[in-house]
């Protein structure tokens, strides 16, 4: 998987978006030697003027869609360093990535640059 993922994560031409990516970026560099490029952390990019705390996926979905994003605290605190993730972990990660993509697209619609 590393042979496929490394070029994607290091590509300056492909935008990667998500929430709270700082630790992920540091771990990819430290553990796998991946130098990510063109990464947008929505937690800070979507912060409004005067806000001190980063914005999370739940609050972003609420702000942009008026809906509540269900996130299982039990799954959040599971061991994500296992060689094989459980189906629930995979679903959680997929939902998180999908939410980030949808929020990003809505934000860009509202703020064309």
Task: Itemize the secondary structure elements and their pairings.
Elements: H1 2-10, E1 16-18, H2 22-32, E2 39-41, H3 42-45, H4 57-65, H5 73-76, H6 87-110
Parallel strand pairs: 1-2
Helix pairs in contact: 4-6
Keywords summarizing the entry:
single chain; about 110 residues; mainly alpha; two-stranded parallel ribbon; 2 strands
Structure description:
The chain has 113 residues and is mainly alpha-helical. The protein is 54% helix and 5% strand. The protein has a two-stranded parallel ribbon with strand order 1-2. Strand 1 (16-18), helix 2 (22-32) and strand 2 (39-41) form a beta-alpha-beta unit. The protein is globular, with a radius of gyration of 15 Å.
Strand/helix succession = HEHEHHHH
Straight-line N-to-C gap: 34 Å
Radius of gyration: 15 Å
Helix/strand structural class:
mainly alpha
Residue runs with pLDDT of under 50 for 5 or more positions: none
Helical proportion, percent range: 40-55%
Strand content: 5-15%
Shape: globular
The largest sheet, given as strand count, sense and whether it forms a barrel, is: 2 strands, parallel
Order of adjacent strands in the largest pleated sheet: 1-2
């Amino acid at each position: 998987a590393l042979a496929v993922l490394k070029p994607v994560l290091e590509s300056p031409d492909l935008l990667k978006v998500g929430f709270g990516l700082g630790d992920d970026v540091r771990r990819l560099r430290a553990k796998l030697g991946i130098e990510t490029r063109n990464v947008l952390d929505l937690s800070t990019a979507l912060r409004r003027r005067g806000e001190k705390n980063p914005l999370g996926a739940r609050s972003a979905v609420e702000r942009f869609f008026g809906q509540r994003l269900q996130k299982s605290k039990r799954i959040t605190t599971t061991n994500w360093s296992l060689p094989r993730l459980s189906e629930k972990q995979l679903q959680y990660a997929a939902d998180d990535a999908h939410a980030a993509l949808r929020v990003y697209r809505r934000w860009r619609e509202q703020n064309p640059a």
